Structures are given as structure tokens and as C-alpha cells.
Amino acid sequence: MQLFNVYPVNDITITKAEGSYVWDDKGQQYLDLYGGHAVISIGHTHPHYVKRLTEQLGKVGFYSNSVHIPLQQQLAKLLGQVSGKEDYQLFLCNSGAEANENALKLASFHNGNKKIIAFKKSFHGRTSLAVAATDNPAIVAPVNETDNVIFLPWEDPVALEVAFQTNEICAVIIEGIQGVGGINVASPAFLQKIRSLCDAHNAVYIADSVQCGYGRSGKFFSHDHAGVQADIYTMAKGMGNGFPIGGIIISPKFKASYGMLGTTFGGNHLACAAALAVLEVISQENLIANAEAIGNYLMTELKKLPKIKEVRGRGLMIGIELPAELAHVKKELLFKHKIFTGEAKPNVIRLLPSLALTKEHADQFLTAIKQELAN
Ligand code: PMP
Question: What's the complex ipTM?
């Protein structure tokens, strides 16, 4: 059987990983500033993470949600403490798309409305509602097409007000920092506007924090920079540091009922052990403050460099927009300098490293990109 291979893969096989580095099968070391697309939050193969997961695997790896799983309560408690959302509720699932899918369903159960506001260049996942709210026609199959999603321009408060005049809005779904769309940071004023319109119209504010959340922006949720409280936060990626887990954090005003949301693997013992280990390391090693400090350092230094069109982002979610003729720099970084980065459009380099990135790692990258821009 052949793989149904839909991914444009680099011709590299990773066989070892530690901290912010990975190694290929030939022993070549790479600096990882991509983190498997914002997934590696505490660094690869962190000893505490490996220990907690291994120990859990030796006890019980899976038993269904038909019994009590105390690890879920422990996770909810710690997540409440670290995120500052102690009065919210937690529902566990397995991926970012699934988290958004459930958030949108819950919103519609809550107020009975159907219209969803999403934004141009958004990415919310590849399942039916999540993909319908994603601004990328290439991944929306005919069966996913729906009139229920209204795409508004990014940061257009007037268009937002007009859309709300219909009085049919179920939810607004927004990434506090658009990731796939090119690292676009939503302004506090725009997020506050969404909050007040949702309040006035009984609509649900969904903060898609799958990529920009979990401490990456220098605060637990990027929406925290605007001082707004969302009704639902969706999470995945960094939550399990590579173990598949997603979740939604739900305002106390929502009431759960049996059968409303559910999934076989959601909140399984191993996923919870992984997520607990991640939060323990984030707290013990002060990784959110580190993301802010190293992110600020990187952005300040990048802004001094020539030729770069724009540096955007917050914390360790950084976009470097290059002129189109310099789009090849990303490849040079990988093949010449052995540094993995991500991309959004061919000319935007995306940095989504582990939150434990050090100044030395940042300097290694700065030296490499300086050299490429000098050529
Ligand atoms: N939301 C955002 C903002 C994302 O960046 C992604 C993944 N790139 C998703 C949702 C979907 O997550 P998953 O791939 O885990 O389904």
C-alpha cells in the first residue's frame, strides 16, 4: 500500500529530538524553530514529560469515559490555575479542528442561532464546521459549503457592526493572532469591539487559541493582551507537546447536558498525563515569561535587519515578511544553516519554537538570517 500522501514533505527523516534540537538519520543536528507547527511547547523529550507519560502507560493507558478519570479533574484544576480561568469548565477532545467544531456547536446549542462570523485569512481546521469557517477554498469540499458563515475583513469594526444588525449571529470565531494566515495580530480595540457586540446580541465569542494560545504569545491566551474574556477558548497543539489532545475552556454560563458533546478518545489517561506534564513544566520553568522575553528580544533584533518588509507577532509567535524575491531564504535556513522554520505564504517565515527557547538559540538564528540577508 502507498501512503495517501497529501503533505509536501522535506526530504529529511528525524530520528532523535531533545530540547530545541532535532537530528536526522544521518546524525545532522537542526535547530527547531518550527516545533512541528507550534506543537512543541516545552521542548522535545523533556525528562519530566517522558517520565510522566511512561509511568502512566505502565499503569493504565486507556479506559473509556464511562468511568471516572481523576486525571481529567487534575488537569482541569491545574489548567484553571495556569490560565487564570478557574471558574470556566473544560471539555477534552483530540485536535484543534475538533475543539473548534465543538465550540461552534456549543454556541449554537446555547443561543439557537446559526450564523457564524469568521475572518479573511482565518484557519480553524479541516472538519465540517471548522473548515467552513476557514478562509481557504482549496480545503473546503462541496459538502462543507454553507451560507451560515460570514467572512469579514480582518479588523473592520464597521463591517462587524453591520453583520450584527441581522440579529442572527450565533458566534464570532477569531484567532487572537492569525497563524496560517501570516501572523496577523488582532488589536486590543478590535477584540474589545467583538466582546461588546457579542454581549449586546447574545452571541458567543470563541477565541481560537489552537496556535496562538498556551503561553505562546507571552500570556496564556493571546486574547489576554486585550483584557477581554472570551466565552469559549479552543486549544490543541502545545497542550500535549506532541501527544494528541485538544480542549475547550467554557464559560460558566454554558450548561452541559448528556450527549451534547463527546468523543471516545477525549481526555484519555495518556493524553491527560501528557497535558499535566506540559502544564507542570510551563509553571516550574516559567516558560510563559520566557516566551515573552525571548520573543521580544528576537523581534527587536529582527526589526534592525535590512531588507525585511515587516516583523509581526507576540512572544514566540513571529512572522518575518520578506520581499517576494527573498522567499528562498527559508530554504537556505534549512539546508545551509540547519534551522527549521515554518511558512505562511512563500515569503513569510513563521517562528513557532518551544517556549523554552534560549537567547543562544535566538542568536544562532539571528546570525544565520543576517548572513542570508547580506547576500
Ligand atoms: N486552529 C488554528 C488557529 C490552527 O492553526 C489549526 C492548525 N493549523 C487548527 C485550528 C486545526 O488544528 P488541528 O490540525 O489540530 O485540527
Answer: 0.99
